[in-house]
Structure formats: structure tokens, C-alpha cells
Amino acid sequence: MNRALFGKMTLNRFSFVFSGSLAAFLMWGCSAVICLVNDKVTVQPATTTAGYHSADNVTTNVLGDITRTAACLDDSPRCTLVCKICDSYFEDQMTCLSFLFEHNCLPQFNKGMESLNNTDWCVWDKVNSLYSSLSQCTEDISDCLLIPWPNSLVEDIFVSIHSRFFQECSMEEFSDPSPQIVFALVITPICLIPVMVSLVVLKTKNGDGTP
């Protein structure tokens, strides 16, 4: 009787100790998981900068938790990253747009122009690619942020680069032709009209058999 009672008490004591150990283990495990999650949440974003049309040209998070923002063109990696940096680090989109123009579009253009001789700045074949890339860069970023293009920031950029690089370029090839050339181009078809009418009338008379 006493032995049975002692065995029952021993079993109950073992169950109590086992339950306490299990509870302590679960508490330790939950604490470790919570700490791990907190460590991930508090990881600071790392920035990488690359050239235009690169997926690394804006700030991203080391955890890779890129999410689409509300005011964004689409879910493409480029647009998602552009919208992410604007929402995370800037209060308004126009300020972010100006930042991206200054640090993503213009450096490539300025570097390319500075690699050319000053005399080549006015040769369209030399600067066409750089000029088009700059224009495309500003358009793509504006589209991602759903900002109309062209806009005031784009106009300011092109006024700035024209003042810096193209101010001394001659515009003769794009100027209007001289008055003499304009007069010749206008008067030639006017003079041809009576000649064509006379030929038609003469052809008609010959077809009727009349002299």
C-alpha cells in the first residue's frame, strides 16, 4: 500500500519536473525566435549604386523584401526599386525624382561628354547616343513614379546641359534658308502651272482632230 502510494507520488513528481522542463525549453525557443526576428527587422538597408538601367541603381534592402508601393507604374524590378527608395527616404516624389536625375541620369551623361573633346560637343553623331540615353533615363524614372514627362525638372536638366555643353554650337544647319532659296522654291511650281495647263489644252485639241 505504501509502496503503491510512493510509486504514484514519484510518477506525479516526474511528470511535474518533465512539464516544467518542457515549459522552460519552449520559453527559451520562443525567445530565440523572437530575437532572431527582431534582428532581421532591425537590419539597416544597404545602398549600391550602378549605371543607368541597372537593377542596383537605387537603395534596396539586404533581406530582399521589396514590396510594390501604391503610386508605381508596375511590378517590374526597376520601377519597384525606384518607388521603394522614394517612399522610404523622401517626403514627396518630385524631390525624389530630382535626386534620381542628379545621381542616376546626369552622371552618365556628364562622364560621356567630358570624355569627348570640346570640338566634338557640337557634332551630333558624337553626342546623339549620350543625349538620347539621358532623355530615356529621365522618361523611364518619371514613368515609374507616374509623373508626366516632360516636366519642369526635365526642362531644367536640359537647359542646364545646353548651357554647359552646347552654348557655343552653331545653329546654322538648323536655320531657315535664305530668301533667294525660298523665292526659287515658291516661284518654280507657280511658273509650271501655266505650262502644264497649256500642254493639257494642246493635247485635248489634238485628240479632237482640230488644228
TrEMBL record:
Pfam families listed in its UniProt record: RAMP
Bilayer topology: Single-pass type I membrane protein
Localization per Swiss-Prot or TrEMBL: Cell membrane
Sequence intervals crossing the membrane: 181-202
Main subcellular location: membrane
Annotated InterPro entries: RAMP (IPR006985), RAMP_sf (IPR038126)
Biological process per Gene Ontology, one example term: angiogenesis
Swiss-Prot/TrEMBL keywords: Cell membrane, Disulfide bond, Membrane, Receptor, Signal, Transmembrane, Transmembrane helix, Transport
Gene Ontology cellular-component terms listed: cell surface; plasma membrane; receptor complex
Gene Ontology molecular function, alphabetical: coreceptor activity
Similarity-based family: Belongs to the RAMP family.
Identification of the protein by name: Receptor activity-modifying protein 2 isoform X1
